[in-house]
């Protein structure tokens, strides 16, 4: 049986640093593989925390995506509203034609309002001092959500638009709720009526308006005493009439 010399080198251990500590120290320091890996390896992945700014930007992008979807769908609805207005004019029903155009204007105003809101949000979220504008961003997101909810109510589909053909109560509610100018809708109605009937609108006159009859010239000859008395009498009577009125 072969024996190794006393001073022969020992075999290498998997953790040489642990072996040296056990040989040179009088007290044994408990070391585990897990604690060794945590202190020496440093390969644990670091988790990225989602900040409030990241969440606000994500919400803004989601709203923008919804807006693009609504724009495509509401374009179909507004085209149908125009077709209904023409059909009502052909039947001589101007009231329902006006209501259809008012709904169309209301839907278009919602899209314009939402687009402006999202543009403002993009400016706020790109600001360096986000902590100062965070409150405005949250408020803007809330306003954008409210407008999108209003647009979502308009997304009932073509069946909802077709109710204008037989029901007027829902359309009258839109007329009372919206703030669309009556003159703006009536101008579009007149243009559609001219298109349906084929009668062109009257042109605005370019020639100057005729002047009113000129007033009589002031007499240059001196008035007689009798005429002056009559004139003063008329003035007094006119003043009395004005005072009584």
Automatic annotation (TrEMBL):
Keywords: Endosome, Membrane, Protein transport, Transport. Residues 219-239 have a biased composition (Basic and acidic residues). Signal peptide: none annotated. It is found in: Endosome membrane. The keyword Protein transport applies. The keyword Zinc does not apply. Its main location: membrane. One of its GO terms (cellular component) is ESCRT III complex. Residues 203-245 are annotated as: Disordered. One of its GO terms (biological process) is late endosome to vacuole transport via multivesicular body sorting pathway. Belongs to the SNF7 family. PANTHER family: CHARGED MULTIVESICULAR BODY PROTEIN, CHARGED MULTIVESICULAR BODY PROTEIN 6. This is Charged multivesicular body protein 6. It comes from Botrytis tulipae. The lineage of its organism: Eukaryota, Fungi, Dikarya, Ascomycota, Pezizomycotina.
């Amino acid at each position: 049986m072969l024996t190794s010399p006393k001073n022969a080198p020992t075999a290498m251990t998997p953790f040489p640093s642990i072996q040296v500590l056990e040989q040179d120290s009088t007290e044994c320091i408990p070391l585990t593989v897990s604690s060794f890996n945590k202190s020496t390896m440093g390969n644990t992945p670091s988790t990225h925390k989602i900040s409030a700014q990241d969440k606000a930007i994500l919400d803004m992008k989601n709203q923008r995506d919804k807006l693009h979807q609504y724009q495509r769908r509401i374009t179909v609805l507004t085209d149908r509203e125009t077709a209904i207005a023409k059909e009502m004019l052909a039947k001589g029903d101007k009231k329902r034609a006006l209501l259809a155009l008012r709904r169309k204007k209301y839907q278009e105003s919602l899209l314009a309002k939402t687009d402006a809101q999202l543009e403002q949000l993009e400016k706020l979220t790109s600001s360096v001092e986000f902590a100062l504008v965070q409150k405005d961003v949250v408020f803007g997101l809330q306003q954008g959500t409210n407008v999108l909810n209003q647009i979502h109510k308009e997304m009932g589909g073509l069946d909802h638009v077709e109710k204008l053909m037989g029901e007027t109560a829902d359309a009258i509610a839109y007329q009372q709720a919206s703030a669309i100018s009556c003159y703006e809708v009536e101008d579009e109605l007149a243009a559609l009526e001219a298109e349906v009937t084929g009668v062109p609108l009257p042109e605005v006159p370019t020639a100057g308006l005729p002047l009113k009859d000129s007033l009589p010239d002031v007499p240059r000859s001196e008035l007689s005493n009798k005429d002056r008395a009559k004139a003063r009498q008329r003035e007094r009577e006119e003043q009395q009439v004005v005072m009584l009125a």
